[in-house]
Amino acid sequence: MYIRTTRFQAGFTLLELIIAMVIISVGVTGVLAALDTSVKASADPLVSKQMLAVAEELLEETLLRPYAVVGVAPVNAPASCGGFSPPARTTFDDVSDYHNYETTGICDIDGAAVAGLAAYGVKVTVVANGAIATDLTGLPAGAVKKITVLVTHGSQSLSLIGWRSDYAS
Asked: pTM for the whole thing?
């Protein structure tokens, strides 16, 4: 009786295993080098998130004020939180009161410095549609105000823009 045996090759040879390990290690090294470079070159995410949070809060606070209230607007001048205090924003009664609000350091709505944010700065500008360079034809003069909040930290800056219309009148 004749028994036929066939040898099936199973597994890898030592040479194939060494070549696969070299190829995989070169690929992983390249991916890790690219990841390391991108992490080193990226901006500090904590600073970016804090800048965005400050800008969003101040823009929302401004947009929630009435469009216009008859009265005397405060005189806003650059100020430092903790030193010469800026006006408390609780006294601001309409959107235009925020025009030229500027601080070094971030202040709460009462004008007190927020701990840990002394290295940041903020500036708010409010411009009526009569002075805006974009095309807002068809709107009556003074029907829209453009609010720009600029937050800075060192050489980084973040700007948010909001529009407030006089929808109530």
From this structure: 0.68
